[in-house]
Design a protein that fits this description.
The chain is mainly alpha-helical. It has one domain (3-97). The chain has 7 helices and 3 strands, in the order H-H-H-E-E-E-H-H-H-H. Strands 1-2-3 form a 3-stranded antiparallel sheet. A hairpin with a 2-residue loop joins strand 2 (52-55) and strand 3 (58-59). The longest helix has 37 residues, at 88-124. The radius of gyration is 21 Å and the shape is elongated.
């Protein structure tokens, strides 16, 4: 999951998109359509082509999955029908929740990895292990 890209989109939706230009059922006006207007996303390959979001060989929902590193259920939640989004901030808040969950998952994985490393070092530092070398 590309949390930095998602956080950038959340910020954009909160600060640069007004309610009048946001309409969930239209690709041009939904959160993904607005993502296609962010210059750094354009530089990374996300574009609107004939009214459809594209990224590489992907379009529509698949473009969001590939660009943001989302699973299909996550992409649907944010960009299709999961979030009852009547305002840009609704999607921004859903993005923030998803990013928070991912950051917690990564932190837990980091702790588990460090714990495993400490256990390995501790085991290798016992007198028996040192003498066996």
């Amino acid at each position: 999951m590309h949390t930095i890209r998602l956080s950038t989109l959340s910020h954009h939706l909160r600060h640069d998109v007004d309610s009048g230009s946001f309409y969930f059922p239209h690709w041009n006006c939904c959160a993904l359509g607005h993502a296609c207007r962010i210059p750094e996303f354009n530089d990374a390959g996300l574009h609107m082509c004939l009214g459809v979001p594209t990224y590489g060989d992907h379009s529509r929902l698949e473009a969001s999955m590939a660009f943001f590193g989302l699973s299909e259920p996550q992409a649907r939640e944010l960009f299709v029908n999961g979030t009852p989004a009547t305002e840009p901030i609704d999607v921004a808040e859903a993005i923030d929740r998803l990013v928070s969950i991912e950051q917690q998952r990564r932190a837990a994985a980091d702790v588990a990895a460090v714990t495993a490393d400490v256990a390995t070092v501790t085991k290798a530092s016992t007198p028996e292990a040192i003498l066996a070398e």
